[in-house]
Structures are given as C-alpha cells and as structure tokens.
Design goal:
This protein has about 350 residues and is an all-alpha fold. Helix content is about 75%, strand content about 0%.
Amino acid sequence: MRRLLVRLLHLDLVRSAKAVQHLTTFVVTAVSTILVTRLFLALSGYPRIGGDTGLHVAHVLPGGLLMLVAMWLQFSYIGPGPRAAAALVGGAGFGLFIDEVGKFVTSDNDYFFEPSAAIMYVVFTGFVVGARSLRRRRPLTDAEHVAGAAHVLVDGLAGRLSEHRRQEVLRTLDAVGEREGVGELRSLLERVETRTPGVPQRLEGVWQAVADLFARVSSSRFALPAMGVLLLAQTAGAAVVVLGAWHSRTPHGIPVAGVLLGATLSLVFTVVGSWQGARRGRRAAVESFQRSVLTSLLLTQVFLFAVSQFAATAGLLVDLVLLGLVNADLARTRRVPR
C-alpha cells in the first residue's frame, strides 16, 4: 500500500538550487508586509477604502492580484529569470492575503481576532520548517545541479544571461565533475554572450550585494559575540514591552503568552548556542542562533504586534539584520568541516 501511494504521489520534479533563497524572500516579504500593513493602518486610524459608499475594498483583494501577477510571471516566461520577482511580488500578495485571516474564520468578520496571529505563525512556521527539513534530508543530487545549469542556459541562449550568473553556474559544474551533459553545458555556457542584468537579475544582484555585505560583517571576530548580545537584547526588549503592557492591562492573554513563549524559546536557543560555541565550535553556535532569530521573526514579532506596533516593527528590522548575519556566517562555516 505504501509503495502504491508513493508511486501515485511521486511528482518527479527537479528541485532548484535557488529554492531556499526564493522561499526566504517570499516569507520575509510576506511577514514584512503584514507588519508594515498593520503599522500603516494603526497610524492612519484604520481607514475604509470606499469611504461612506457602503463598499469596502479589503486588502485581501490586492493581495490576491499580486499573487496572480506572481503566477503570471511564472507561467508566461521560461528560465529562472522571473523567479526572484515572483518571490517578491508573491510574498507581498500572500502577506496582504493572510493578514485578513481573522475576517474569514469569524462570523462577524473580526479583523482583530486575537488567534489570527497564531494562525499566521503556524502557516509561516510550517512553511519554513518544512522547506528547510526537506532540503536538509534530501540535498540536491549531481543530476539536479546539472539540470539547474541547463535551466540557466535558457537565459543564455535567449541573450539574457549576466556574467555573474554564468560564472556561478560554471563553478557549480566544476563541483559536479565528470557527468553526462556537463561538458556540453560548459561549452554552450562559455560561448553564449552575456548582457547587462535585467530587472529580475538585478533583484538577484541586490540580494547578492546584501549577502556579500553580511558575509564581510559576519567574518569579523567580533561578529559572533555581537550576534549573541543582540539576540539577548532583542529577547529582553520584547519581554519588557509585553510585561509593561500586561501591567497596564492593555492586551489580552493570547498575545502576551505568544510573545513570552517566543522570547523564552529565543533565549534558550541563544544560551544553548553560546554554550555550544565554547564546546563544539562556531558552526554549532551559529546554527542555534539561527533558530533563535527565526523564532523571534516568526513567533515573537507576530504576537508582539498585537501589543505594540512600533516595537514589533523595530524588532522586525533587527531580526532581518540578524537573519542576514547568521545565514552568511552559517553559509561560510558549512563549507568548513567540523
């Protein structure tokens, strides 16, 4: 029975080497869109688009349109070019869509339904954890790396390949070694003419420039202790904000519980990371710091927004910087054996 189910559900799809980058762009954009949207609505007094006409254009509608645009980009164009733009546009659209989940799970269309933050948290956490678990359990095979290079060649044959991307793919083929199709792909990639990157390639270029900056900063000998201090300060700040609000009896129990749970988990991951760094090396510390940042981003800040929009927005910015630093450090340390 199990073999039959595996055979029926086997989609036979080739995975992308850029999947983690695009999925991260999608999730970070979606979470950022939620927090920025709620901050704007709070500052503007929650205006109704449509005024006093009896109509209200909920922002779930432009969210759906942005997701439609992301799908249109994927369906209409071949090659890896549109994926960066689709991840960005689709993430913004999904953020606008799921921000109004409270209206669709309550009979009175309550946008401020408290468990909405928990629903959003479960969705994003499941998405991120599931994607990362699948990639760690099943790394890309050499055949998939070769197929990915052939996919990039599509842009080259159409005259839309940047020199940076070509060199990146050639390095991937060097790592694969001798395999069927590698020689032919290398020959074609070396012969195609490159051009100035277009908008989708420039989006990836921006990502690369930011990644290079984080890589330089994270390589400093002061980076690891600085990350630990920032994580502790971030955790303490969230706890102070929510406890102060609880003392003034402003929020209800669910947001407070969510923030305290997230802050506690982040604190545990940070302390464990510092301890592991002293015993097992930098890589173990960075991996634990990464769990701390993701917990803060996907749990603490989502619930904190119900308590203080400004604190959650500031926390988001700090989390994004920390996420960039730990990911850059982790990418470098993973290239070095334990």
